[in-house]
Amino acid sequence: MRAILPIVLTLAVVTGGCAIEPFQKDGGKAVGGQAQPAQRPAGSGPVPTAPPPAVEAPSPEAEPAVEVPPPAPPPRERPKAAAATLSPASKALVSQAQAQRKKGDLPGATVSLDRALRIEPNNPLLWIEMGRLRMDQRNYPQAENMGRKALAMSVGDDRTQSMAWQLISDSLRARGKNIQAQEATEKAKTLSPNYD
Predict the structure, then answer these.
(1) Is position 169 within any domain?
(2) Domain count along the chain
(3) pLDDT per position in the chain (196 positions), as tens?
(4) Which domain holds residue 130?
(5) Is residue 125 part of a domain?
(6) Within a domain: residue 14?
(7) Mapped to the 3 state alphabet, what secondary structure does 118-174 carry?
(8) How many angstroms separate the CA atoms of 140 and 168, rounded?
């Protein structure tokens, strides 16, 4: 019996303590485990208020910043290139090819221009000359291709580009593509208004 008594007393204290409502120092009473403020006597001054909650700035991840692109630079003027010229050897072969064309020796003119192209394969004037020879041979698609090749090689050289566009125009007109031919002629005139 003596062994059971301390256990019973302990249980009584534990369960009995739950029924007693504790008081706070300032006179407030705990209800349901939460402290209640003590009653303030009337006329004791303004009631203190809690500061408003801090407003958090939006995080950068919430709204992505809109980046304004820098203004576009003004369009650059197309760089001018030196006008294409023929080397003395190529010039002699072109003169020979032109004489052969006038005589009707188109195969001989082809050989002369092929030799010139081996000397200067990147000279657009030679490709234009070969394109004119292809026009004489009635190979109009190849004449256009040679004109376009000359265009690619003569960027910035307005006079040579104008000659290439004129070759392209002639090859298109020979195939009945008059609208495209007129557009090519306009490009030729725009690049070199005094070119005939």
Answers:
(1) yes
(2) 1
(3) 555 555 555 555 555 555 445 444 445 554 455 555 555 555 555 655 666 666 565 555 555 566 766 776 665 555 666 778 889 999 999 999 999 999 999 999 999 999 999 999 999 999 999 999 999 999 999 999 999 999 999 988 899 999 999 999 999 999 999 999 999 999 989 887 665 4
(4) 88-191
(5) yes
(6) no
(7) HHCCCCHHHHHHHHHHHHHCCCHHHHHHHHHHHHHHCCCCHHHHHHHHHHHHHHHHH
(8) 9
- With vertex at residue 88, the alpha carbon angle to CA 196 and CA 105, rounded to the nearest 5 degrees, is 65
Amino acid at 23: F
Q: Give buried/exposed letters for 136-173 (b at 16+ CB in 10 A, else e).
A: eeebbebbbbbbbbbbebbeebbebbbbbbbbbbbbbb
Q: Give me 45's structure tokens.
A: 């001054």
Q: Is residue 30 part of a domain?
A: no
CATH value at residue 184: 1.25.40.10
